[in-house]
């Protein structure tokens, strides 16, 4: 007679334990996945908040600059009209005083002052007008070469050594005239910072993880005295300048050109001395 098989309590407990262990492990795996998803979502939300905060800051700044530009444009037009009259009267006076060198010298000073005011008015109008970008594919190194050619006399007069680094060709899609104008301004600023000579370095490089950009980074560095730390956060403000002959609009126009390309520009001092301007587009 066959005896019926009976499961012992110990074998039943082992099976239940294994099943429970599998459930716990599955639950732990799901919990870990959920935690990772939560962490990624939290990181994304944090990044979006930071981006929104930066966009709001830029929007506020653009609105403020637009208001300043509108006011400046109105003033510039009002100033330009009488300047034309002053220049006309100065030229008539110069003709009448051809035999009086001392008087002619004074007339020339008047004309020089008018020309400087005309240049200021032109810059104010340039700053205040809307910047329309016409992007085309172009070699970034071609823009750099053209800029250095335009600044060749100033660079040579100050005995400045130049160096250009980066992959060649480096094809990007920008408005070459506007980017060339912005780069020329940065180059001339760097040259002016090195009256006794020095080294000017321009680097074209692809985007980096720690310096967000879609197409490229364009870096201009000099070996001058650098930017005083107390004014570092103000140098892009319109009409801010530390130079007796400056208008304070050069860097403000550069920033507007870069922002019109949906890019950004930063200023810093190099650890080894000198200033560093970086355009990210």
Topology:
Elements: H1 9-96, H2 101-128, E1 136-139, H3 140-150, H4 152-157, E2 160-165, E3 171-174, H5 176-192, E4 198-205, E5 217-222, H6 250-260, E6 264-269, E7 275-280
Parallel strand pairs: 2-4
Antiparallel strand pairs: 1-3, 4-5, 5-7, 6-7
Count of DSSP-assigned helices: 6
CATH topology of the largest domain: Heat Shock Protein 90
CATH homologous superfamily classification of the largest domain: Histidine kinase-like ATPase, C-terminal domain
Q: How large is the share of residues in beta strands?
A: 5-15%
Whole-number total of structural domains? 2
Q: Specify the biggest β-sheet.
A: 5 strands, mixed
Biggest sheet, spatial arrangement of strands: 2-4-5-7-6
Q: What integer is the average pLDDT?
A: 84
Could you name the CATH class of the largest domain? Answer: Alpha Beta
By CATH, the architecture of the largest domain is named 2-Layer Sandwich
The total beta strand count reads: 7
What's the Cα radius of gyration?
A: 32 Å
Low-confidence stretches: none
Order of helices and strands: HHEHHEEHEEHEE
Distance between the termini: 90 Å
Judged by helices, strands and strand pairing, the structural class is alpha+beta
Please estimate the helix content: 55-70%
